[in-house]
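Need a sequence for this fold. Nothing fancy.
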């Protein structure tokens, strides 16, 4: 069902884009127009640019990141967004904070069910989902590519993890933050908490 939600969300985001003047909302909608992984993808672009691992960006890096990710934003708008996030006026922004603010807001009920799914998958309880974790929870043998001999069990697991991992830097590990970012995208396309929770329960047998 996620692919359909993704399409609906992208169409909705593009539609709303023409209506909003709020720069942060415009950036959020441009990310969502790329589907559930849109915001996460932007995060990865910033991470790649953060050469000194400071987890912060100055304005020049920020603009370069937006351009590399092909975001349609003019310099004035970028300055305005940067100012909103540079709360202490230090000339740098913390990009974890930036991504959390960019994520569509979710109710606590939604966050809680997402975390339940994460904990179920994270068999080892170390806060990261890996192929090892999936062995006990996710049955690869039902996958059509496994059944017709195209993929091994590990390839099925890896493809599954890649859904949540970011498009540019797939490392086969999914952190809580990546999982939450992914579902913030999915969540944006689902109007009611009740429906979102039912969908999660069915998807993860919670």
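Here you go.
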């Amino acid at each position: 069902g996620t692919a359909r939600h993704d399409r609906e969300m992208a169409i909705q985001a593009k539609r709303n884009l023409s209506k909003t003047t709020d720069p942060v909302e415009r950036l959020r909608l441009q990310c969502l127009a790329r589907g559930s992984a849109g915001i996460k993808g932007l995060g990865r672009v910033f991470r790649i640019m953060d050469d000194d691992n400071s987890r912060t960006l100055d304005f020049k890096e920020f603009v370069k990141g937006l351009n590399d990710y092909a975001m349609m934003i003019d310099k004035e708008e970028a300055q305005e967004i940067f100012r909103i996030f540079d709360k202490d006026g230090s000339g740098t922004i913390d990009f974890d904070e930036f991504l959390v603010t960019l994520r569509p807001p979710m109710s606590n009920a939604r966050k809680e069910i997402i975390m339940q799914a994460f904990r179920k998958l994270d068999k080892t309880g170390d806060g990261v989902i890996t192929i090892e974790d999936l062995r006990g929870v996710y049955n690869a043998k039902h996958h059509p590519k496994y059944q017709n001999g195209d993929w091994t069990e590990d390839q099925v697991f890896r493809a599954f993890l890649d859904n949540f991992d970011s498009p540019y830097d797939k490392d086969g590990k999914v952190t809580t933050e990546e999982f939450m970012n992914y579902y913030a995208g999915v969540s944006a396309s689902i109007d009611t908490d009740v429906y979102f929770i039912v969908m999660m329960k069915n998807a993860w047998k919670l």
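For context: The CA atoms of residues 135 and 157 lie 8 Å apart.
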